[in-house]
Structures are given as C-alpha cells and as structure tokens.
Specification:
Layout: H1 3-20, H2 23-38, E1 51-56, E2 62-66, H3 98-101, H4 114-121, H5 149-164, H6 195-208, H7 219-231, H8 248-265, H9 272-284, H10 304-319, H11 326-338, H12 373-384, H13 392-402, H14 417-430, H15 432-447, H16 468-484, H17 486-489
Antiparallel strand pairs: 1-2
Helix pairs in contact: 5-16, 6-7, 6-8, 6-16, 8-9, 8-10, 9-10, 10-11, 10-12, 12-14, 14-15, 14-16
Length: 497
Amino acid sequence: MSLEQRGSGFEEQLRDSMRSAPWLGVSALLHALALLILSQFDYAVAPSAEPVTLCASPLDEDVEILVPQPQIPPPEPKVEPKSESVEPPVAADEPDDEFLRDAPDDRSSPIEGPLDRRAANDVIGCGPGGIGGGRGPRGGRRGGAPPPPPTEICVNRALQWLRRHQDPAGFWDCDGFPARCQQNLCDGKGGALNDVGVTALATLAFLGAGSTTNVGEHRTAVRSALKWLESVQDAEDGCFGAKAGQHFLYGHALATLAMVEGCTLSRAPHLKRPAQRALDFISRARNPYAAWRYACPPDGDNDVSVSGWMLFALFAGRDAGLDVDDGAIRDGLAWVRSMTDAATGRTGYHEKGSLPARESDALERWPAERSESMTACALLLDVFDGADARSADVSRRADLLLARRPAWDETLGAIDYYYWYYGSYATWQLGGRAWDSWQKALLDTVVTHQRQDGDETGSWDPQVDPWGREGGRVYSTAINALCLEVYYRYDRLFGTR
C-alpha cells in the first residue's frame, strides 16, 4: 500500500471513529462552556466546598470541579438615630395623678381667655394675674428680661427650701413646717391661722418660676398645693379656708390669685370652677361702691392692703376670661385712688396719705415711715389699669419709692419684704432710672441675705420683718422669691422712660 493510500485510510478511519463516538465532542464542548461561565464570576473558593462530578471523561475518570459557596458578610449593626434626651412634658389632657383623674368632664375644653392668647402670642400687655410675662401659656420660660445670675440661684434655692418643707397633704404649715426639717429645726414659725395665705404665696412662687400642674421641675408641688386649696374651699360660698381670725380675707385673695394662675398657666379647665367660685366670693365680700377689709358680709370698713390683693385677683380673673364683676374693679380702684394725697403722692392705708399699718408693739422696731408699701401697691394697680408712665402723678409716687429703697438695716427698721414685693413690681413696670436704682438695692439686700446654712438654706429670716410673726419663714421665703422673679413673671406694659 502506498503512503498516499495509507494516509487516506487513516483520515477515513478517524472520521468513522468520531462519528461512532460523539460523546467526546460533547464532553469537550461542556468543559469549554463551564470554564466560560465560571470566568464571569469573582468568587472565592470556600475551603469547605463539596466536589461535584460534572461529566465522565473518555477514560471513565470523574472530573471534579469545585463549585464555590459565596461568603455572605454578617449584617451591619443597626444604628439608632441620635436624639437629645429631653424629658417630655406631662400633657394636660393625660391625667397622671389622682388630682387630674378626678377632674370634671369639662377638663378637655381649652382655656380661651384673652390673657392666655396674649401670653401665647408674646404680646406685651397682660394683666396682673401673671399669666404672661416671660412664661409661656403652658409654663416654662419664654424669654422675658434676662435676670442677673445671682437672682436665679437664689430663686432655685428658695424653691428647693419650700419644696422640702411642704406638707405631704400639699399645703405649707405656717407654724408646723419645722416638722419637715431634715438637718436641724428651722426657727421662724408663723401664725396657725395663715396656712391658706402662705400656701398661696408658695404656689405663686412656683408658678412664677415656670412650674405648673403639667410641666416644670416642681409640678408635683404645684399640683398638690392646688389640690389642697380646692379641698379647703367652702362648698357653699367659695371661700378658701375657715373664716377665722382677722385676716382670713388676705388668705382668700392670695388663694384666688394662685388658683387663677394655676388654671390658666396649666391650661387646666377643671380648675375654672374653683377659680370662678372664689372670684364670686370676692365680689360678695366687697363693700357697696367701695373696697374690702376684714369682714364678710362687709361691714363698711376698707383698707388698701386687703383691697390691693382682691383687685389683683380680679384683674387676673378678667384677663383669664372668667366672669368678673367689672363694677368691683372700677369701684375698688376708685376707692384706692381716693386714699392718695395729691400733694405728696403717698397712698394711705385706710386714710388719705396715712402711713402703712403696723401693730402697736411693732412701731418702735419697724417705724411706719420707713415703708411706702401702700404707695407701691396703688401705683402698681394704676399701671395695670393703664396709667401714663410719663404723668406727674406717677413720677411723684416713683420718687417716694426711690427715697425708701430696700436696705438691710435692722436698727432703722427698714426691712419690709411686703413693701419690697410691691416696690419691685412697680419700679420694674416703670423701667428706666426708677428700676435701675431699685434693682441695685434689691440685689444688695435680698440676694445677699438669703440663708446658706443648715436646714434654713434657701430661706430668709422672718424675725427681721414686721409681718414675720404672722407669716413666718414660709411667708418670708415665698415673697422674696417672688421679688426676684420680677424679671419674667409679668409683662412690662409700657416700656422704659
């Protein structure tokens, strides 16, 4: 056989072999296809991958190809969005204690008084109920004038002292408060019949600093105090406390002011009922066409001191949208003005141009001529009634106050917390030189003489004040705290001069 024939026979034999063994081509094609597919992925081969037989070789040997198992990364930890840690206020419509749970059904209806609207809109011109100033309608600071840092320290200390000495029942025991002392027994007990009055003053101090029944560091103290006041209100005539002693109408006037402020600042309509009943009692206690003093039913006597507190309570009620006898405000203001001596500008206690009241045995220690408390009270009433700050009458009375600025002088009997309260709020309203001069004296006395030792820390001594025997340490601490809250408690009505 020739070489050419031999080659031709080999090629024919090879073609016959290929035709008789098609699996060899298929195997080659599958291998090529598998390699092409795997080249498209970037998997890492896991050490634990199991071998898989894809096909048989012509020599019946298994071809093992490792199929990688994809490595799934562990889930990232969930990161919660950061938020500021702020204690949410207790909503007024979500009762959180027995006091609010027992409220009447009208509690859900909003307070819609004109004073509350002014407070919410930050408009200057609210009345003396205190529902405004630097406080918002739900309590808390809204701005106001920035107080000097020492005054805020003093206010906080005073409120802490009051909170520590509050009775578990919610009131302040005028003569029994030392039972709450923790280190030593505080001195400075007051009169046993004055619990309503000092409880109201303490409540006003907490409200003035921004705590209400719903918000604020001392909201529990405010809730329990208002609850106690409501519990001692006469179910028939609306008077707070027993009609005992000579000065029970002082306590009622102060309690009415506290109840109205608590109702409006807290947006607590369930307090409208006791507030309204208290205002109605004030109207019944007034002498016809005149003002108030110690008796109810009225007996014809009037004095500026009791009448001042009654008028401020009526102003507060009117601005809160409650029903108030406008005639009582008109006639009461007219009577107070009739006690002002046009020549000197001094407002008398119960006679025109007379000196402030003093107990006969206190006159030597606290001479009445050292105080202009009735002049300051009458001036503040006129301010809230729309007096012109530029008038000669206002200037004359302001000069009287500046001649008797706060001074810590026990020998001269110049210490009079009651006078300093009214003087601070009157000169604050006037602004300008009157306030600048008064403020400096106030800081030099009230701030620097707050107690900072023992259980008395945060309080003021009552024995140096003409009314300390009646009101005691609770009275002196509450009223001095109110003095230092003057920067934001009420709106300034007509700016500065």
